[in-house]
Amino acid sequence: MKILKHIALALIFIITFETLAFSQVHDRSWRRIIYQSEDNWFATEEAKSIAENVLLYQRAIGGWPKNTQMQKPLSLSEKEHLKKLKKTNEEATTDNGATTQELYFLSKMYKATAEDVYKQAFLRGVDYLLEAQYENGGWPQFYPLKEGYYTHITYNDNSMVNILKVLQDLKDDTGKYAVKLSDEKKAEVEKAFKKGIACIVKTQYKQNGVLTAWCAQHDEKTLKPAKARSYELPSLSGAESANIVLLLMSLENPSPEVINSINSAVKWFEKTKLTGIRVKREFDKETGKRNTIVVKEDGSYPLWARFMELDDNSPFFCDRDGIKKATLAEIGEERRNGYAWYSGAPNEVLKRYPEWKVKYGTPIKKKAPKDPYNMVVAKDGTGDFTTIQEAMYAAKSFPYQRVIINVKNGVYNEKVHIYSWNTHVSLIGESKEGTIITFDDYFKKIDLGRNSTFHTSTLLVEGDDFIAKNLTVKNTAGAVGQAIALSVNANRCYFENCAFIGNQDTVYTAGEGFKQYFKNCYIEGTTDFIFGEATVLFEDCEIHNKSNSYITAASTPQGQEYGYVFKNCNLTAGKDVTEVYLGRPWRFYAKTVFLECDMGAHIRPEGWHNWKKPEAEKFSFYAEYNCSGEGFQPESRVEWSHQLKKSQAKKYTKENILKSTTKWYQNL
Predict the structure, then answer these.
(1) Where is the active site (predicted)?
(2) Is 528 a residue of the active site?
(3) CATH number of 526-668
(4) Architecture of domain 37-203
(5) CATH topology agreement for domains 37-203 and 526-668
(6) Cα distances (Å, whole numbers) of residue 665 to 151, 290, 462, 597, 653
(7) Which residue of the set 528, 540, 576, 598 is catalytic?
(8) Nearest Cα to 468, choosing from 454, 483, 453, 487?
(9) Using an 8 Å Cβ cutoff, are 577 and 545 in contact?
(10) Smallest Cα–Cα separation from 155: which of 242, 92, 69?
(11) What is this structure's pTM?
């Protein structure tokens, strides 16, 4: 039940964060096309048709209007109107993701087609961002300048952060954008980026002499907090400040000023978080209207008010009359239900901060552990460390005896890395149900190119002779593609009474010739959720499918005697899962064997799939022996798989599978 509760809370946070990403609710279909379409789609005629619209909507100055569904077909009269409007430069903006998202779309079009028209439009868009920047480093909401609050330096809805992220990717040449800048243009971009970061540092609000956070708008001349619409009064902002800090935390080799800025903002987030409440949307079936209320709920994720008083951080709420109210319930129906008054975005800052702190922040002074070979991690501060990674940093390199890290129950939101020099480490949880390591990296989020999958792991093990017991490792990214929970790139590793939970690519077992052993573990996922090249024995484990797909994707090297061996395992699935393959070959020489396993009805009769690689049928080795359950149908298996004889199955002993230069497995 605890696990289900945490999953439910995580879903609440994700939904809340997505809902609060913009203060106004708009049709997201245009954004969905840009960010969720597969790369090869951008070479289609449909994409080119939409790209024509994007080019039409681009103003001559290089920017785009906001809240425009550019995928919708245009009539001839609409096209003629846009051609005339182009010269006026009216409504060009970076608000609500405008311009920055169109730049990303054009980059994808250029990558897919290499057509110069998209490149030139992209470069005009970059020039627009550079031209719109104030000398003090900030950006207005609209450019050319539009009268009113639109001239303020705008952090609202992440406008300035979005711009700086584009410039950051361009100056660092991360590969996110297919269009390459000239050296001269790249130098301009880098200069603009530095000015923007300097503006962020200068606008951080001081409360009684202490740095806190940022406001949604700052006056473009005085840099002081500024008012926008009637209900958007000068105030400190939880949501906008969170994304500013995440940007600052992404900087390599940050200056002392930036480090101080981050540390101060994090202290403010801790000070201003609201716990024990949840924002709930009720729906009245009779009136057809919704009502947003705040309810008490223990154990809910912390929230932050969108507006907080500049002098004491008190949350306040406003209707269109501009009169402050102390509670959400006191304002009218229209504003109460049509605006994002709370945000969970700072949770992401607090989750990432410990790792950043170790790398860049002022080191937290801690006493050396009483016993460097027997350390304790406890979130409540009663141990030697409050995070697992801190303990790893303190662990001896290449020790002469085993280093035991005891982890007390708690949810540890961190990426944990067992380095190659941290050999003979044991990570021992207090309980499998209560000791949870979790993070949410995934392929598109990492966005480092074709090998981004391998950077997504929550727990990465590179130190040989590693042991883990009594804990759960999760990747909570959801069904968003490749997202590893456990990555093991080390030899002689043992996992007992652990749970590994994810979706696609849950457990990666790496290392040619490496031996790894999972005993009495629970592994859950969707597609290829156990994959890699190591020799691995899974004994007495539960392997649980969450969708119709494939369990294993072995990439066993040619000549390696064993690949994946499952002994006495229980293959289970969700109630709607009915068509699962035992495995498919990631590489031609894949080897996977199931011995005396209980197979649920979700296993397909043919059992195995060749991944559209006919050659793999000749070279791979897929086999079963003496299995049971509705899913064990040996007479229906593909003809290129094997049903082992008793004499053949005898060789699949723990000693044979795991043998190494040492008999490391004997005392496990």
Answers:
(1) 528
(2) yes
(3) 2.160.20.10
(4) Alpha/alpha barrel (1.50)
(5) no
(6) 68, 60, 18, 22, 12
(7) 528
(8) 487
(9) yes
(10) 242
(11) 0.55
